[in-house]
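Sequence, structure tokens reproduced for reference:
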Amino acid sequence: MDRTQVNKLIFDGRLYRASKTLYSELVYLTIPGLLDELDSIMLTYKSMVRCIAEGVKDEKQAEVLSYLKQRMLALSDKIYREERKQQSSDLYYTTIRVNEGRLPSYEIFTLDAIEGGPSSLPTEERERYDRLLTILFDRVWVSEKLSAEMVKKIATSSEYLRKAIVPAITMGLGYYWDFEKLRLC
């Protein structure tokens, strides 16, 4: 999918053409809810176009169109991300696939397990600490959005842990923008 071209169509208000491209991409993705979301956007858009064609004046028309564009841009990003995740051998997307296999609360468990610093740990415990820190790093790096609980845990964790997580946040921002990640830096 040429995301730049699809997003240009959306910005230009050519939602019907953009939707055709998105529908063709969704044929290959088996992600529940994305097709329903696109159907919902297009149903609203078609209703709006029909009303315009019938001469109905609506002062909220520009707001509705802007809202539909925002939803379609977000959907375009989701589809692009899912495609990349399924087809890419890039480390970022491989890490996403690995992390999706873990329980959602795994990062909180990991944070609780490595609270404090590694300086005084014996070798065995230090190796476990480093493995858990790597898992946490990967989880923060590829997360689309950090939970409020996760943000609070990181903000109140040791300085060593926060410094270890900053590169994960920075790298994650390169792939996906999330204001909660930025606030932690």
Q: What stands out?
A: The chain has a mean pLDDT of 79. The chain has ten helices and no strands. The radius of gyration is 21 Å.
